[in-house]
Design goal:
The chain has a domain of about 170 residues: 3-Layer(aba) Sandwich (Rossmann fold), CATH 3.40.50. It has 10 helices and 7 strands. Helix 10 links the parallel strand 6 and strand 7. It has a 5-stranded parallel β-sheet. The protein has a two-stranded antiparallel sheet with strand order 4-5. The chain is α/β, with parallel strands linked by helices. Bound molecules: zinc ion (2 copies). One zinc ion binds next to loops.
Length: about 260
Amino acid sequence: MKLKNYIRVFEQLLYPLKCLKCGVYIDPDTVKPHTMEACFCDHCMEPGFYPIDTPFCIKCGVQFYNNFSENHVCEVCLKTPLTLDRVRAAAEYKGIIKDAIPLFKYHSKLSVTKVFEHLLFQTFLRHYAISRIDLIMPVPLHKKKLRERGFNQAFLLIRNFVKRYQQVFEQSPLWEIDTIALARIKKTQPQTGFDIEQRKSNLKNAFKVVNQKTIENKHILLIDDVFTTGATCNEAARVLLKHGAKKVDALVLART
Ligand SMILES: [Zn+2]
Ligand SMILES: [Zn+2]
């Protein structure tokens, strides 16, 4: 047996794969590493995992279920254009990802974090490999919340983006990751249970541009975990555009 295989067997004895939801053991030989199947057993995976694929709305990124084979603009975006230029999501916010996101967001489970990081980077490559992005910014947390949680989940998703990019393209990216220029100055209520208008007013004046020079005339890509009504990303985009950003997009893990 090769050394690599010995190490693997040893690792499996020390850290057997267990379903993060129900705790049953997962046979490592039946799953690919860093996939949802490596985190959840077949039974818990039953609600399904729904990566977003063509056709989707070219503005808000919502998945279409119809016979059009081309991407197009959805009715909602035609009626009420987003402040964001475009939104892209890795998957739909339903099925197993709804169980997986809290494990990542509140418990920072390493296996889920790795899966999500990989998933988001693949989505980034798909939509932004040839786009002229200047800055990638995780949606900031209020400093009190950051202290409570200990980490910004949006930053966890992209902290290895530069390294991953260099591995794929064998050169450094033209964009930078910025975690300073935008700050969250209001500790907002959790958005759950709020309607669209309540979400908007909850977020009013929540963000502040700390360093205008960094964002001026820049094409910015905001990163967040979940996009439901889009109130958070839209408000962040509004503030960035007001202070001179050229264009603001959002890349998220899951959207409704
Ligand atoms: Zn399970
Ligand atoms: Zn749309």
